Amino acid sequence: MTFVGIDIGAEVHAAAAVNDQGSTVCKPFRFTADQAGHTALFAELERLAPVQLVVLEATGHYWKTSPPRW
């Protein structure tokens, strides 16, 4: 299983993924807070599959731009 944490920013978000043993499964990555960035995030999530849980740090109002697939 893979767990992904996302740190929300105004223009750029950062994400990291660990497995159920707490080991890092990919290098932390950044993606933009727009459609292109969300597309890149979903591509990375598909590569990491199966992803069990995605969590966001809901900073201010910036999390409201999160894609509706969540």
Please describe what this structure looks like.
It contains one helix and four strands. Strand 1 and strand 2 form a beta hairpin. The longest helix has 14 residues. By secondary structure, the protein is α+β, with helices and mostly antiparallel strands. Strands 3-2-1-4 form a four-stranded mixed beta sheet, covered by helices on one side. The protein is globular and about 30 Å long. The protein has one domain: 2-keto-3-deoxy-galactonokinase, substrate binding domain (Nucleotidyltransferase, domain 5, 2-Layer Sandwich). The mean pLDDT is 88.
The share of residues in helices is: 10-25%
Query: According to CATH, what is the class?
Result: Alpha Beta
Quick one: CATH superfamily?
Answer: 2-keto-3-deoxy-galactonokinase, substrate binding domain
CATH architectural label: 2-Layer Sandwich
Using the coordinates shown, work out and report the CATH topology: Nucleotidyltransferase, domain 5
Q: SSE string, helix = H, strand = E?
A: EEEHE
Adjacency order of strands in the biggest sheet: 3-2-1-4
The largest β sheet comes out as:
4 strands, mixed
Number of domains: 1
Oligomeric state of shown chains: single chain
Backbone structural class: alpha+beta
Distance between the terminal alpha carbons, to the nearest Å? 18 Å
Mean pLDDT across all residues, rounded? 88
What's the number of helices? 1
Tally of DSSP β-strands: 4
- Sheet-strand content, in percent, reads 35-45%
Name the shape in a single word.
Answer: globular
Low-confidence stretches: none
Rg over CA atoms: 11 Å
Organism: Azospirillum oryzae
InterPro entries: Transp_IS110-like_N (IPR002525)
Domain Transposase IS110-like N-terminal: 4-64
Protein name: Transposase
